Amino acid sequence: MYPKGPLRLMYRIYRHIFPAVREELTRWKERALSIPDPELRKQALDSIENKTFHCEGGSVYAAGNMVFKDALIRLIVAYQTISDYLDNLCDRSTSCSLENFKRLHQAMQDAVSLAPPMLDYYAFNDEKDDGGYLRELVLTCQQEIRKLARYPAVKEEVHRLATLYCELQTYKHLPHGKREERLLAWWENNKGMAPGLSWNEFAAATGSTLGVFCLFQAASDLQISQERINSIMEVYFPWICSLHILLDYLIDLEEDQLGGDLNFIASYSSKAEIYERLSFIARKAKEKISVLPDWKFHEMIIDGLLGLYLSDGKVTRQPMVQDVAKRLIRSSPLHTRFFFLNSRGYRGGKAVLQAPPTVK
Fold first, then answer.
1. Per the structure, how many domains does the chain have?
2. What is the pTM of this model?
3. Fewer CB under 10 Å: which end of the chain, C or N?
């Protein structure tokens, strides 16, 4: 089922996964073009055009079960598109209320709970008419989830992660001054879920969709056991999820500081602390995956995250971030460097890897 190494993984991704992701995103882009409200239409289109790599990265989990790849890709792309669209909408919202952000993100919980979609996600938002776009994304998630025979076994954990994600998005989009107070109080109530992590590292863990995507993949496996589901949760939340979002915030550090946006990396006191905490979280993630029978696949996820984010062009434009990135790459295994070079090549329009057509 799982690709046995980076070469086989990248072959599946370039040959099967990314083309299907682009096809799905083209369909959603065409749908977004018909949104009546100009502001909602703009944010929907921007979220697709500027955050394609989120859907590509999330859909890597479909490479772990090629039999169900079509359903997994449609599900992951639809769910991630909801996430990116709402993030854009809340970042630029003129309706900066707790009620509005909470109501909008109800769509993400509805998508995985299989509850009937709420009729009015825009009740507290100034712009309201999306022509049914958000509701259609929710229904698509539900449609694909119903194809996963073992979804009932992961539903509770998926909903828990989705709830934490929605709470984070609700609080972090509040105006400066209110958001920090809310986030710290929220962490105080939940920090027992992530012992040893600071408030920003816990918040980062809740901001990742990778745990949900891994559970989607698990639900496509008819043989999945409750013990393995529990192990996946212990690996992904908080460790892999926290690493994911901290890396994302690392490369956006200067951009967020200039824009006055919340950035979890900015909470650290020095570049030495940034390196030490990211290294620690990456090591813990590597330690935790050893209990999984498919640990090599998840190790490639960790190495791939490091390679993907640290190869981003934003890194070289920020001297402090570049210093941290160089230290992380130097202290990482060869697989991380492989994904680093591959990601850099892919961004340049010429993938480093040219997989032979005989690889299966």
1. 2
2. 0.94
3. C
Rounded Cα distance between 167 and 188, Å, is 14
- Its domain, for residue 166, covers 155-354
Q: Which tokens hold the place of 115?
A: 């509850």
Contact yes or no for 105/84 (Cβ under 8 A):
no
**Same structural domain for residues 22 and 160?**
no
pLDDT grade for 193, boundaries at 50, 70 and 90: very high
Distance in angstroms (rounded) separating the CA atoms of residues 326 and 289: 25
* 164 and 122 part of one domain: no
Which of 2, 6, 7 lies closest to 359, judged by CA?
7
119 plus 180 within the same structural domain: no
Q: How would you class 113 by CB atoms within 10 Å of its CB: exposed for 0-12, middle for 13-18, buried for 19 or more?
A: middle
> Residues 297-355: pLDDT tens digits?
999 999 999 999 999 999 999 999 999 999 999 999 999 999 999 999 988 763 333 33
Query: What pLDDT was estimated at residue 357?
Result: 35
Three-state SS at 321: helix
Rounded to the nearest angstrom, the gap between the alpha carbon of residue 241 and the centroid of all alpha carbons in its chain is: 8
How much is the pLDDT for 303? 96
Of 80, 76, 74, 72, residue with least CA distance to 1:
72
Q: What is the pLDDT of residues 49-83, one digit of tens each?
A: 999 999 999 999 999 999 999 999 999 999 999 99
Looking at the structure, tell me whether residues 118 and 175 fall in a common domain. Answer: no
Same domain, 131 and 172: no
* Phi then psi dihedrals of residue 349, to 5 deg: 85, 10
Same domain, 164 and 268: yes
